[in-house]
Amino acid sequence: MSLVDRALVRVLPVVPRPLVRQVSSRYIAGSELADASAAVRALNSHGRMATVDVLGEEIRSEDVTHAYARAYEEVLAEIDRRHLDSNISVKPTALGLQLDFDLCVANLRRLVHRAAMRDNFVRIDMEDATTTDATLTLYRTLREGGFDAVGIVLQASLKRTIADIGALADLKPSVRICKGIYVESPDIQYRDFDAVRKSFVASLAALVDAGCYVGIATHDEWLLDRAKRLVAERGLSRDEYEFQMLLGVRPRLGDVLLAEGHRLRIYVPFGSHWYEYAIRRLQENPSVAGYIASDTVGRLLHPRRNGVYG
Fold this sequence. Notes:
By secondary structure, the chain is α/β, with parallel strands linked by helices. It has helices at about 5-10, 15-25, 35-45, 60-80, 100-115, 130-145, 160-170, 195-210, 220-235, 250-260, 275-285, 285-300, and strands at about 50-55, 85-90, 120-125, 150-155, 175-180, 215, 240-245, 265-270.
């Protein structure tokens, strides 16, 4: 992480809200479902799949959790109505995990049921380490209850991840593997850059060897090369894995993946909480702040790069 990235993060809270919105507009679909739908249609037209996320987490009101569940039901209906190639990605704390486990199970069970009826899929996001055990239990509860149209996320930066893969292996889960953006205690998290990379590769290998479908979520070119090599060595067919990236982040890498014949899914967040999402995510991942800043300057200097894929 560069000193410039750190400096950018420190000034984020004083950046005017309109400027944050302008900068983040490339990375957040917008405030409304119509914005997300338009973004997904554009992605689909360029050969990319999508996963839609309604921004919001750490909800502490039962009524609000139900509102989020309804919002996701509307997303599923929109995907079906528009014939979009997209699933949904949900944060357990938006659906009540910090309020009541059974409330969160009920909200998720309804969503997964609605998704399955539409031949769709729900990805349960992984949040900070205080929720890891509960999220994994939530996933197992759904799967053992006969709900199969649901997947989970694991974070390579956590030292427990290899063990978690072993514990989940009997379910043959669909897993998104990512580095992880939350800053945790060094007792439970790898902090060294190379150690996180090593854990990512080991976790990916363990998931593939366990027969899991894997969403390989990274913008790290070194990891992308290692992942492509592993996929080739294991002889995986095109429909046994996918790569995943964030909306607007390093789209040219996505172009390369598609040109090589890989499938690519883009994470498309939207909602009224765009500002909180933008500030928090940039603070948690300063290297992305640096990338966004340099990319924004580049687009100002070269306006023709302002299209969806840069």
